[in-house]
Design a protein that fits this description.
The chain is of the alpha/beta class. It is 30% helix and 27% strand. The chain has an 8-stranded parallel barrel with strand order 1-4-5-6-7-10-11-12, surrounded by 6 helices. Helix 7 packs across helix 9.
């Protein structure tokens, strides 16, 4: 059986790890490379690094930084931000990332998923789906929450699956940074409509929140604030989940 994963998501801006609430009022937390080194020696199964500025500033991925990151990460890591073409994705993978995460470009050209998948395999592609409630309806958003799209997250996840992505990172913006728990209802709806592995993101505030998300048959939980602003740790999460009969990786580091 495939083990369930604990994955920190690190938001990268101007060489710093940053954090905010609902994609707003983001503040500097620590130096990015230092943060990567710290998480690398904790009980995490993967690391997701998202450059939150590159798309809106029309920048391509910073390959030199990705190379530096890869030298300091011994677990698989996913990079997202500024990927606008097949070549961008290939360059990121060649620079050391194990997977690429695509978000904003998917709304311009969903076929980019097919292009990457045919060359590198679907296992290297994560479709990142940010969503929020607008006028009582859930809508997908892109460009770090600045652009609203008419499509809802369930239909968009199905579209991403049909076009060749290997995994879904679903992020509830209304819960991002609040530590109020994952959007379990939306997780369940997406799970019932797609067969891809799902990473739940947005809202983790306790180990119980992670357990509740795993009961919806997802593959991984992503968390950020809980590991940056509380005493809770990936090790503690795994011990808690193990007691709850969630099949996580053993070999805890103290």
């Amino acid at each position: 059986m495939i083990k369930k994963r604990i994955i920190p998501t690190l938001l990268w801006s101007d060489n710093n790890l940053v954090k905010g609430v609902n994609f707003k009022d983001r503040r500097q937390v620590a130096d990015m490379l230092t943060s990567i080194k710290i998480f690398n020696i904790r009980d995490v199964d993967e690391i997701i690094i998202l450059d939150i500025d590159s798309t809106n500033l029309n920048k391509t991925p910073d390959l030199n930084s990705i190379i530096d990151f890869s030298k300091n990460i011994s677990v698989p890591f996913t990079y997202g931000g500024g990927i606008k073409s097949f070549q961008d994705a290939l360059d990121v993978l060649k620079s050391g990332a194990d997977k690429v995460s695509l978000n904003s470009e998917l709304y311009n050209d969903i076929s980019i998923l097919n292009k990457i998948s045919k060359h590198t395999g679907s296992q290297s592609i994560v479709a990142s789906v940010d969503f929020k409630k607008i006028d009582e309806k859930f809508r997908c958003v892109s460009n770090s929450g600045q652009k609203i799209h008419e499509i809802n997250p369930i239909d968009f996840c199905k579209l991403c699956q049909d076009h060749g992505c290997g995994e879904l990172l679903i992020n509830a913006i209304d819960r991002e940074g609040t530590m109020s728990g994952y959007d379990l209802e939306m997780i369940e709806k997406i799970r019932s409509n797609v067969s891809l592995p799902i990473i739940a993101s947005g809202g983790a505030g306790s180990y119980q929140d992670m357990f509740d998300a795993f009961t919806k048959d997802i593959s991984a939980v992503s968390a950020s604030s809980i590991f940056s602003f509380t005493e809770l740790t990936p090790t503690g999460a795994k011990k808690f989940l193990k007691k709850k009969k969630i099949d996580v990786r053993d070999g805890y580091r103290y």
